[in-house]
Design goal:
Length: 489
């Protein structure tokens, strides 16, 4: 009788993140692509005055251009992850870069606001949705121990590009007018294509040679296929649902200072220059917070979810203190609280993404990030109008910031209800269940695609064994099952 012990289920050489090598090239690609998505998105306010004057429309109508782009980016994120699961991440990201550039190029010929909504909003937003989440998931898949640090480095480009793009775009508008500036932005966005080209094609095992054609074409199989690409089964996974709810509540208050801190500073009696510098200073410490948080998190002294709750709690408290610090008219107090808020808001950003693979596993990380972005967008869209409504009712921004900080703290409390939250040890991430289990959620063809070619565990050969009783546990206990496994190779 022959005994053999294969590799643990779901483990292969390809699954081991190298924590370096080509992964650092992808970090550079993430740095550039993120700056060309969110850094560019934050700097579009330069065109605001130009559009108001040219189209002679209200500020509210013009503001829908950037809002449509942000909403489209988050709405189409699940589509981007589904396409990456179905096809190749490299092709998807490169396509997204082409669409992002095409949107700005077409917008340069706009003759109405609807034209801008469809080009800068929908087309470029669709391109951004195909770029951001797949790039983040690709970088995280290449790192394990340094995962949070590399995300902090990659996301730091958002703050840096915001500082660089604002004067650059202003210069372009003054030199080439807004149409010429948009053409240049379109060409600049095409650099995302080069970033996507750096992603190495994913190696996949061959699907079974014989597939029932009727089943492949059936509606039920198609729905299962789409559901697996989108990872819709995560919507009934309690830890993921709890975490998504917590991040959505966090999102309600997270963006409020970005929109209303300058206006609050002006209302508190500070000059335009002082009010603008408050936000710039917060942006500078935001960059520092991302890098420091990533470095400290990867030391492994504390669990990522615990560090995330610490940063979110502090961020929520500092948001509440922003209006309180300016009640005495002290600019130094307002600046100090703004600096602390910027640091904490930057520190938590990388951790929000880094915790996801610890909850769902690396294999389902791509779809999980897409669904998370889609759901959390509702919180971001709700927060700013709610704070504006509170300002209209009360006449100042005190209630707006207090409520915003309260939502952030509420998100923190929701995280504490995650299973095993109070455990001091980081639990191993869950593995995707194979067809040997009772829950056969994936189509057989898809399961074969996800399974590594070197996966020779006993559970992986249950199909060959035809559920024979000789095949038990993770070991081959009979000659019969060993031969079947050899046949499978």
């Amino acid at each position: 009788m022959t005994n053999a012990k294969p590799k643990a289920e779901g483990k292969s050489d390809d699954d081991e993140a190298p924590d370096g090598g080509w992964g650092w090239v992808l970090v550079g690609a993430l740095f550039v692509s993120t700056s060309l998505v969110f850094g560019l998105m934050r700097s579009l306010g330069i065109f605001f005055v130009e559009f108001v004057q040219y189209f002679e429309e209200s500020a509210q109508a013009i503001s829908w251009i950037s809002s449509t782009g942000l909403a489209a980016q988050q709405f189409f994120s699940p589509l981007g992850t589904a396409l990456c699961n179905a096809y190749d991440t490299r092709v998807v990201v490169m396509t997204g870069g082409c669409l992002a550039g095409l949107g700005f190029i077409l917008a340069s010929q706009a003759t109405s606001l609807v034209h801008l909504y469809l080009t800068m909003g929908v087309i470029s937003g669709l391109g951004w949705g195909l770029v951001f989440t797949p790039m983040v998931a690709t970088v995280m898949a290449h790192f394990t121990r340094r995962r949070t640090l590399v995300l902090g480095v990659g996301f730091s480009s958002i703050g840096l590009s915001s500082f660089a793009f604002n004067p650059l775009f202003q210069l372009l508008v003054e030199t080439y007018a807004w149409r010429g500036a948009l053409l240049i932005l379109g060409a600049l966005s095409l650099n995302i294509v080069a970033c996507g080209a750096l992603i190495r094609p994913r190696r996949r095992s061959k699907a079974p040679a014989k597939v029932d054609s009727e089943r492949r074409s059936s509606c039920a199989a198609t729905l299962r296929r789409v559901s697996s690409y989108l990872e819709l089964s995560l919507l009934v996974d309690r830890p993921y649902v709890v975490y998504t709810l917590a991040v959505t509540l966090l999102n309600v208050g997270y963006f409020v200072p970005y929109f209303h801190l300058v206006a609050h500073s002006r209302q508190a009696g500070f000059s335009e220059y002082q009010a603008a510098f408050v936000m710039s200073a917060a942006g500078a410490t935001d960059i520092l917070g991302r890098i420091v948080s990533g470095w400290f998190s990867d030391l492994g002294h504390f669990r990522l979810i615990h560090l995330l709750t610490v940063w979110t709690t502090l961020a929520g408290l500092f948001i509440m203190l922003l209006p309180v610090s300016s009640l005495s008219g002290s600019y130094a107090a307002l600046m100090a609280i703004s600096l602390l808020y910027g640091f904490c808001s930057g520190a938590l950003t990388s951790l929000v993404f880094a915790v996801v693979p610890m909850i769902v596993g690396v294999e389902r990380m791509m779809g999980a990030l897409g669904l998370l972005q889609l759901i959390e967008s509702s919180g971001g869209l709700l927060g700013t109008p709610l704070s504006g409504l509170l300002k209209d009712v009360t006449g100042n921004y005190t209630a707006s910031f207090v409520v915003a900080g309260g939502f952030v703290v509420l998100g923190t409390l929701t995280m504490t209800t995650l299973p095993h939250y109070f455990s001091c040890k980081e639990l191993p991430p869950p593995q995707r269940r194979s067809l040997g289990n009772k829950d056969k959620g994936l189509d057989p063809e898809l399961e074969q695609m996800h399974r590594s070619p070197t996966d020779t565990s006993c559970r992986g050969v249950n199909e060959v064994c035809s559920n024979l009783k000789e095949c038990e546990g993770d070991n081959w206990v009979t000659i019969t099952c060993w031969k079947n496994a050899k046949d499978m190779e």
